[in-house]
Amino acid sequence: MALFDTTLRDGEQTPGVSFTTGQKVEIARHLAEIGVTAIEAGFPASSAEEREAVKAVVDAGTGATICGLARMRKEDVDACLDCGVEMVHLFIPTSEVQREHTVRMRMDEVLAATAEVVGYARAHVDQVLFSPMDATRTDWDDLVRVCQAAVRAGATAVNIPDTVGVMTPSAMKELITRIVKEVKAPIDVHCHNDFGLAVANTLAAVEAGASQVQVTVNGMGERAGNADLAQTVMALEAVYGIKTGVETARLVETSRLVSRYAGLPVPPAQPVVGENAFAHESGIHAHGILEHPETFEPGVMTPEMVGHRRRIKFGKHAGRHAVAQMLADVRLTPNDTQLDQILEQVKAISGRGRRVTDADLYAIAGEVIGMGDVTPSVQVSDISVLTGNHTLPTASIRMVVDGTEKVACSTGNGPVDAAMRAILGCLPEPVHLKEFSIEAITGGTDAIGHVTIAVEDPAGHIFDASASSDDIVTASVEAMVNAVNLVRRTGKEG
């Protein structure tokens, strides 16, 4: 199954998103590395900056087929050709509502323009993809006529876009089945997610004979977005047994790369790549997972297959088995009475609406078991942060690490980022900051901020910790140090 990724074109049409040329090139390289064979780099005729970006993606030599989008105009085709793309994607509105209110063209005019411009493009480039825009709301006879006209003119593939996301899987399957019979060219589909059906409609099209599917990373795109790359790939690979050629173990990495460049966080509950995709809190679920992962996971899709990690989380639904296992991992062995006390405190904290971190669990367990205070291996002696309108945020920190004083200075995108970088600069082993969140737990300008941090050790294990203060930097530093101490203690004891 061929994948056509349009993150750099339709994905960038997400409100508020704008990739730099460098980011576009890096994303394209990454997509090609993981196995995406066709990448729509942008819409060259839209601006000089867009032409430069598309040309840069072409010049990067990713190995994937690079496509440029064009309206049904020769000058748009020329803009694509000037960038050196290997494929031109031509589109024209075909539904009555779009023809009348966007391009003001009769259907016979659409047919004539399609034949002329598709033929022009095909004379200059080997691959031409044709899209009858708003195909799923286009009269059936008109849809067939325009698709057939495009193929006669030289289109090498036909895309059927569900432009406003109105299809259902059963309707999409029926439509593509009919299109495959009437149009003698490979069929591609482009599904929007207005009703949350983009992936389902894409899969229905595959069942009906579509040979290529259009996707975006994290489902980005106009309005509610497009079919999500990770979800589509894993459904095809794990549920349908259809090979996509994608290196699935890098799907989470891909999601995070694009999320960072787009400035759009991935929702925790996002299928496949979200932080909660393989996280379990309920006692019954956690117990089952620890005994046999397939009890409450699909089985055909494991966290390792997509580059994820399984996590047991703690809250008011936590069970004794999961808590006991987590403590056993760091060689804490409470008796039954102590375990009940630990579990009671965990649930009490969660019941007050607060997230229970790994550091919270170990601290509670230490108190209940009566271990006494354990001197942390990392302690902050002093930290100062300089910031301002004309000053690059800079943090200087003095720490004691395993009894030895360490000093580091770092700049960052803000005072908190600078402080985090300074802390990491004092550590002898690599620790990767995975999550950072802050919330105000009191009101007013002097509000108390509660910071929660998750870090990953070199082995891929994730640990989280939190802290609160009326100073955001102080809370962030304390939470980070708590998490780092947890990583180092677990590594020594585990």
List the main descriptive attributes of the protein structure presented here:
Double Stranded RNA Binding Domain; 41% helix; alpha/beta; 3 domains; 494 residues; 16 strands; three-stranded antiparallel beta sheet; TIM Barrel; eight-stranded parallel β-barrel; elongated
Q: Which outline best applies? A: elongated
Gap from first CA to last CA = 44 Å
> What is the number of strand segments?
16
Question: Radius of gyration, rounded?
Answer: 27 Å
- The CATH architecture of the largest domain can be named as Alpha-Beta Barrel
CATH topology of the largest domain: TIM Barrel
CATH top level assignment of the largest domain: Alpha Beta
Strand order of the largest sheet: 1-2-3-4-5-6-7-8
Q: What would CATH call the homologous superfamily of the largest domain? A: Aldolase class I
Please work out how many helical segments DSSP would assign: 16
Could you tell me the strand content as a percent range?
15-25%
Largest beta-sheet characterization: 8 strands, parallel, barrel
**Would you tell me the structural class of the helices and strands?**
alpha/beta
Query: How many separate domains?
Result: 3
Mean pLDDT: 88
